[in-house]
Design a protein that fits this description.
Blueprint lengths: L19 H8 L2 H5 L4 H13 L5 E5 L7 H7 L3 E6 L2 H10 L4 E4 L16 E7 L10 H11 E12 L3 E8 L2 E7 L2 H10 L2 E11 L9 E10 L5
Parallel strand pairs: 1-2, 1-4, 2-3, 4-5
Antiparallel strand pairs: 5-9, 6-7, 8-9
């Protein structure tokens, strides 16, 4: 039997988002207060900006409040579309980045034949959004991202380095479930989904709230490989 991560087969996978969106609805602007300095995220978005032509169409996957990434991309003159599971986060993103287009949606909604067809993009930023998924879904999400990208399109991806799967943690006064990989396994998963990794960086980050432990953040600069490769 094939692994569900080998194809876009959400139909055979039971998705559970219980409490995830509600947690971020409740957190709201406190998210940006908890993560005030996002050097790695800003640098990875700057890589997209420097690597894509002016006016490129870019998706901010898991856009949160729109800060800093959607605003950074919009200020660079890109056509920015943002998606987030949380209605509250989408509302904040629309306020913070009025030139952007924002949708409340699940990553699974964006798959081929899914509920929301956003077209194709020159670049995708996925900063800490895939860590909200169980590991079984992460290869599916990455293949969905590949589907959303035009040939040669770029992906700026970040994850927290951790060997966990759908693990419950306290988070800014709420509880969320997160997954992660050690960096070598993360690279394997990303490459298996059809991406070439061009650069990697990591940052040790200490959030500004007591209930989140210091973490190692990994940033990958990726390019969609040609079909058939």
């Amino acid at each position: 039997m094939s692994n569900p991560g080998d194809r876009l087969d959400y139909e055979t996978l039971r998705r559970d988002r219980t409490g995830q969106a509600e947690a971020f609805d409740a957190i709201g602007n406190r998210y940006d207060e908890a993560f005030p300095h996002k050097e790695g995220q800003v640098a990875a978005a700057a890589w997209l900006i420097g690597s894509l032509p002016a006016g490129s169409r870019v998706l901010d996957l898991g856009c949160g409040t729109g800060l800093p990434t959607a605003r950074q991309l919009a200020e660079a003159g890109f056509d920015v579309v943002g998606v987030d599971l949380s209605d509250g986060m989408v509302a904040l993103a629309r306020d913070h980045v009025p030139t952007g287009e924002f949708h409340q949606a699940d990553i699974a909604d964006l798959r081929p034949g899914g509920l929301l067809d956003l077209g194709r993009f020159d670049g995708v930023a996925a900063f800490f959004s895939l860590l909200m998924l169980p590991r079984a879904e992460i290869p599916l999400a990455l293949r969905t991202v590949r589907h959303l990208l035009r040939p040669g399109g770029l992906l700026a991806l970040s994850m927290v380095e951790a060997d966990v799967d759908d693990f419950s943690i306290p988070f800014i006064g709420r509880s969320i479930r997160v997954s992660g990989y050690l960096r070598d396994e993360l690279r394997e998963v990303v490459e298996a989904a059809g991406f070439e990794i061009g650069d990697e960086s990591s940052y040790t980050y200490a959030p500004a709230v007591a209930d989140i432990q210091p973490e190692v953040q990994i940033f990958l600069h990726c390019r969609r490989t040609p079909d058939g490769s």
